[in-house]
Amino acid sequence: MQAEIITIGDEILIGQIVDTNSAWIAQKLNEIGISLSQIKSISDNKLQIIKSLNDSFDQVNLILITGGLGPTNDDITKSTLATYFNSPLKMDHSVLKHVESLLKGRNVSMNELNIKQAEVPENCKVLHNSCGTAPGMWFEHNQKVLISMPGVPFEMKMMMEHEIIPLLKQRFSLPEIIHKTIITHGIAESTLAIQIAEWENNLPNCIKLAFLPSPGIVRLRLSAQGDDKKQLKNTIEGSIRPLREILKDAILSEDDESIEVIISKLLINNNKTLAVAESCTGGNIAHLMTLVPGSSAYFKGGVVAYSNEVKQSILGVMELLITEKGAVSEEVVECMAKNVATILGSNYGIGISGIAGPDGGSLDKPIGTVWISVYNGLKLVSRKFQFGDNRERNITRASIAALNMLRLLILEDVQKK
Amino acid sequence: MQAEIITIGDEILIGQIVDTNSAWIAQKLNEIGISLSQIKSISDNKLQIIKSLNDSFDQVNLILITGGLGPTNDDITKSTLATYFNSPLKMDHSVLKHVESLLKGRNVSMNELNIKQAEVPENCKVLHNSCGTAPGMWFEHNQKVLISMPGVPFEMKMMMEHEIIPLLKQRFSLPEIIHKTIITHGIAESTLAIQIAEWENNLPNCIKLAFLPSPGIVRLRLSAQGDDKKQLKNTIEGSIRPLREILKDAILSEDDESIEVIISKLLINNNKTLAVAESCTGGNIAHLMTLVPGSSAYFKGGVVAYSNEVKQSILGVMELLITEKGAVSEEVVECMAKNVATILGSNYGIGISGIAGPDGGSLDKPIGTVWISVYNGLKLVSRKFQFGDNRERNITRASIAALNMLRLLILEDVQKK
């Protein structure tokens, strides 16, 4: 089963935004056995949209469109679809109600443009946009399907997951596909590829492997396709067993979840709390931890000790220690980890200090040098990392490395019990 | 002048990587007056590549291809182009020399796959790849141009900047395009659209307007195309003047920059420092501020006071105040803003507390209620916001709202001087 994605919006064509939606949609479609033959980005132009739809319908049975559904004049996807499918716009009262309640919740009063967002082509099935005002649309056309989604990533994602994926599974007869994602940490993609090459070569034919790298993390996605779901599950499980032997501690999780969610679960399950003292990561670890709903149950808080004065005044790191060892040193991060846990009254503490770049590097501490310490109330585990020269990536990689050190320490503590 | 980009590679179509190349190339082309009518991502498949080339040559005079130039068997772009242009591959000895010296520098010995990389179609112009082994190629075809580049981002970027852009300027007579982006804050997209509708209708024909919304922010992009750069600049400037009157304080910036960069510039230019006390934003404001390179010059640090104990122990908020007024109250955020500036020794302080959701809401303080206070050493400015019910969006919107309140306070202070 083949599909095409069409992303509509001038902002992509002038390079103002990077199209991250398509990769995400591609992954989700792959999971249910739909593969993409093409992704196209085109402008907010009626003739071009129509030409593009014709071309795509010539090639595939399923087209997914994102973008161009906003309330303003430059957004013309909906009116173009109404023309294309020869289906006049009419008011959808349940959409109107939703838009109304959404705006009320945001304390914004309803205007004529919002009201127009609740109009949809007569012959489409409306797809509920739980977090936005632009409804999605599902059209049936000569046995083929066209789906129009908003371009705002989180709106599109909610709609894909809750509305579109279930409907696609009903509408098309798709093969059984089972995916299992193994999250690895600390091994570069190319090294990992060599390390597991023999294992990969011995995978059964029904299993496909994909490497999905992001800073600090490589996700290995195994996909098995066939007719018998149970058998596929067994085949995957059988393939993962030897992988566990090869990768050991480098496996963060065998579920597709983020490191902050892994840590949250570990803390909740063991009834423990965390506090963080961050220098180079500048609050990113606290930010990641508090993205998880309910984090106030186990996350006490943190200190972003960006200047040395703060390391001294709030965290009680001795000035002499900083002068003698440097702000980026084992001794200083250990003091930060220990003191933040003590002062904030948490079971675990993280201390982190490094040179994120682009400035501040020296010969013996080049850009990308990061010291991390984790503390459990009794002992400290500390490690030095050497990341690259990209500030944003360094912040991300250092944050993940710190949370992974904490994960290993919590696991050690749990096993001792 | 119109062009199309074709990115070739299965890894894009299965969502393994996000195509960041196209946005970058689009920006560079825009700067020299070439606009894109389409971006296509297709797989490493000979027939699809040929079909795609034919389609694109029907539409535009310039095609830029990335990807599929690697040494392995799955990379077929070069051989496909040789077939397409009916131009057999031959060894290019200067490319061979370059590949040889490059591999020597990497301590890798030359193999037959590397040698094959130095073969190029007879009738193409070779584009030097200063950082990689795959040469770029420039084909002339019925008065039209096709350029093939490697998919590795930094190789492609070097080739674009040093080889392709200068050649394009020579080869085509190009119009001028000028973009100007106005960043607005605090007005929903649809409200903004109505507010500036009359202004928009009176825009000269040579100017196109686009709305680019993201949580808390709407960017307005004006694009003017013509022959005379100076005249276009004047036309844009003339159009922005009345917009300033309409939007006033809602304009964050007239450059395409983020709120954290705007704040950084304000702090640097006025030689001031900042500290933040965050509850519901959980370190996100500190994270945003420290994403900016060089932020240690003006960002002292922050306290993520996620639990009430931390608000009391580190920030010195009285327990009684929290009990009487609640952790999400004007009094508490004022105390947080004031004390964090005092304790961390900064000129400005931010205090923020709210209910990010999904839990924790009540009748008089529903999810999305956020109190923010900013402090300049003398006075406090405090405001209550009511955001929505999405945790991640609330964190983003509250962070931007706080930084905007700080921006207005700094501007007020500057004007007083």
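qc> The two ends of chain B are 50 Å apart (CA to CA).
qc> done
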